[in-house]
Amino acid sequence: MTTLTKGPEAVRLPAPPPAARRRGRWVTITLFLLPAIVLFLMLVVAPMVVAAYSSLFRWNGFGGLPTDFIGLDNFTRLFSSEIFVQDMWHLVVLVALSIFVQLPFSLAVAMLLHQRMRGRAIYRMVFFAPYVLSEVITGVLFSLILSPGSGMANQVLSVFGWESEWLADPDTVLPSLFLVMTWKYFGFHMMIYLAGRQNIPDELVEAAQIDGATAWKTFRYVTLPLLGPTIRISVFLSVIYTIQLFDLVWILTGGGPSHASETMAVTMMDWGFKRSQVGYASAISVVMFVLSLVFALFYQRLVMRRDLEGATTSMGGRR
Amino acid sequence: MKRSLVLIAAAVLVAGCGGAGGSAQQEGTDGSPGQVTLEWWHLSTAEPLKSLWDQRAKEFMAQNPNVTIKATVLENDAYKAKLTTITQSGQAPDLFATWGGGVLQQQIEAGLVKDISTDVADVLPNFTPAALSAYQFDGKTYGLPTDIGVVGFWYNKELFQQAGITEPPATWSAFLEDVKKLKAAGITPIALAGKEKWPGHYYWAYLAMRIAGLDALKQAAVDNDFNRPDFVAAGQQLKALADLQPFQKGFLGAGYGTPDGQAATMGNGQAAMELMGQWAPATQADAGKGLGEDLGFFPFPAVEGGKGSAGDAFGGGGGLAVGTDAPPQAVEFVKYMTAMENHSKAVEAGGVLPVLKGEENAVEDPNLKQVATMLAGATGYQLYLDQAYPPAVGQQVNDSVAELIGGTKTPEEVAQDITEVAKSEG
Q1: Is residue A70 domain-resident?
Q2: In whole angstroms, how large is the CA radius of gyration of chain A?
Q3: In this structure, what are the phi and psi dihedrals at residue B146, rounded to the nearest 5 degrees?
Q4: Is the pLDDT of residue B363 over 90?
Q5: Which residues in chain A touch residue B253, judged by CB atoms under 8 angstroms apart?
Q6: How many whole angstroms from its chain centre is CA B262?
Q7: What's the CA gap between B271 and B230, in Å, rounded?
Q8: Residue A16: what pLDDT?
Q9: Where does the record locate the signal sequence feature (chain B) (predicted)?
Q10: Where are the domains of chain B?
Q11: Contact: A273, B195; criterion CB under 8 Å
């Protein structure tokens, strides 16, 4: 790591500015940051604090701040609730499917579209298009397509003598939901991978080919390792999205049938806004927050450590 | 200035007449010439009400040039969610549709709903007591009814005939037999919207009413205890029905008013019956083709050995409540909407049922007449459970019953789950 220390030293070379000028710079920085900090405190930090606070109360959400303090009862109730435990399981299933099916699929499409082929730009655009649609429109669209009675999916598949109840059957609802998620998001991940692939110098691939590497070996030992940072960030985005998954489920199934496709965010909406138990819903949101935070911190520290050198994980420059 | 004052006075006078007179003077004293906008939220998304209500608003605006009515019309589930969200932020629309009961009571306790007792004292005697009861608490009135009805079975006469059923079932066991006959004839017996949970809760509610009785349902909410043999028995009967697999294909994912939902399935003649409220014929015609002459109505059958009377009716209406901070014109509009000559138009069109005394003659549709007669002769009345109970308990009833119908919960677990949530509220 000795080579790294060269950088900071080089910066330190010019004489430090006089104290007055340095203070002036701090004032400028503070002034520029102030609007953003105020907004951040008001719209992000304050609601988080209020949610954490109200999660300790029995509260129907009406009138001022909650008063009926019940300690951690909301959390004990939450973790003994079958539905919430099911939500966590759905999260695990969807994350696993995303990482092991959706992302490899996106990667494969990206590699394919990196080749020189006719109409490459059109394919890229078409595959990326679903990502631009709003989640609600996607939801409405697929609830029509996947409708068991008159939906397009069953009309087409019935030609081959195959039919499914899609979103109406507790056993198939999660895979169907994942299908819609993939349709909507594989284009986005494909785009990230394409960008990552374009950053890999052609010389490396060429060199491997000259050394006699097969296409698979070139991919496995040259392209894939060099795509590492890109893959790690796309896994990260995918997991965070799944933890917060709401719109699509709300429109497609509302969490049903029999909670078979419910996610934490849907459960939270249900208790907070349909049943007026805001304290309990706040407890769910706190768990979601902690889960996202813990995942983000651990993932960034452990997995994305090298990719983020000098950003969030530099530990004050000491590394 | 002078001219606008005259205009206002004239407008208020006209509005006063519309609201069966009386309050014009009181209005005249504080009437300021400023423009007033009334936010009005309701959920009549289907014809004929959709355009009728719109017409009433336009007429009212024409008579009161300083009033602008901005209507927000949402579908049932979206409406409930949006109203809860805004009321939790400490506001309420100036005018909003309500079912009364526990949900309205919670909004009243939060200080969001105006006590309109004195404003409407002059028109109160015009309403039937059954229609009014859901909006009155401790002798105070918080809303006026626009509709009142009952839930019952709407059936397709043609399909019943095909299955060889000559008359609608009067008992629960006969009902189950008919379901089997329909299935044997290759007809889907019942249309149900399983994605939305409120249509399913009607079955459990009616069975609980027939088996345990009205008083038991009331008492359960007081004691926070639904863990009684009678409620379990209601669940078992519903399970017996669900085990016959009487519902349309993919019903667990079906909505109510959507193009392939419960109402459309029924309205297109793809299922023989549905358990639904007085608005069912309108929605069937709106979402599907509508059955016309083939549509019939029969009350929920009696359950043998049950404690409840077969004459007890389950249902609800709809009313209009006024937000605490609403301008006085909001109350005037509510009175205008429910005045005899205005409201009876909606009754004639078959959109709502009579809420005013002497309005019965305006009912023209034979099926709705039957509903009105059943209502008039009801031995007891139970409001929708998801409105009568506090929201958390009501939604849990919906939820648990959906799980029971979906086959993931037993009747005992349903009673247990509802009890647990009821206790968490208490």
Answers
A1: no
A2: 25
A3: -110, -15
A4: no
A5: 146-148, 165-169, 173, 253, 256-257
A6: 17
A7: 30
A8: 59
A9: 1-20
A10: 2-146+317-369, 152-314+375-425
A11: no
- B2-146+317-369 and B152-314+375-425 in the same fold: yes
Check pLDDT > 50 for residue B159.
yes
pTM: 0.80
**For chain B, which residues lie within 8 Å of any Cβ of chain A, measuring from their own Cβ?**
77, 80-81, 84-85, 87-88, 90, 106-107, 109-112, 194-197, 248-254, 258-260, 265, 390-392, 395-396, 402-403, 406-409, 424-425
**By C-alpha distance, which of A277, A279, A273 is closest to A57?**
A279
Distance CA B206, CA B204 (A): 6
Q: Closest CB to B84: pick one of A258, A274, A280.
A: A274
Domain B152-314+375-425 has CATH 3.40.190.10: yes
pLDDT-based confidence at residue B276 (cuts at 50, 70, 90): very high
3-state secondary structure (DSSP) of residue B129: helix
Report the phi/psi class of residue B392: left, alpha or beta, with left for phi > 0 and alpha for psi in -120 to 50: alpha
Above 80 in pLDDT, residue B33? no
Supply the pLDDT for residue A309: 66
In a domain, A52, yes or no: no
Torsion sign over Cα B96, B98, B103, B106: positive
Mean per-residue pLDDT over chain B, rounded: 85
**CATH (domain of A117):** 1.10.3720.10
* Mean local confidence (pLDDT), B156-185: 94
Contacts with B, A 244-263, CB within 8 Å: 253-254, 256-259
Closest Cα to residue B176, out of B269, B273, B261?
B273
Residue in chain A closest to B424 (alpha carbons) equals: A58
- Looking at the complex, report in whole angstroms how far the Cα of residue B94 sits from the nearest Cα belonging to chain A: 18
CB atoms within 10 A of CB B273: 26
Ranges in chain A, pLDDT < 50: 1-10, 313-319
Is A228 inside a domain boundary?
yes
- Beta-bridge partners for B36: B67
Shortest CA distance from B405: residue in chain A: A258
ipTM value for the complex? 0.75
Q: What is the mean pLDDT of residues B297-308?
A: 92
- Domain span at residue A297? 87-303
- Number of folded domains that form chain A: 1
How many residues can be counted in chain A?
319
Place of tokens 């959400």: A61
Q: What's the 3-state SS for B274-315?
A: EEECCCHHHHHHHHCCCCHHHEEEECCCECCCCCCCCCEEEE
* Mean pLDDT on B256-280: 91
Query: Residue B19: what pLDDT?
Result: 36
Residue A161 sits at the vertex; the CA angle it makes with A160 and A162, to the nearest 5 degrees, is 95
pLDDT in tens, B208-223: 999 999 999 989 988 9
Range ranked top by mean pLDDT from A25-34, A203-212, B36-45, B176-185: B176-185
By Cβ distance, the residue of A149, A168, A276 closest to B392 is: A276
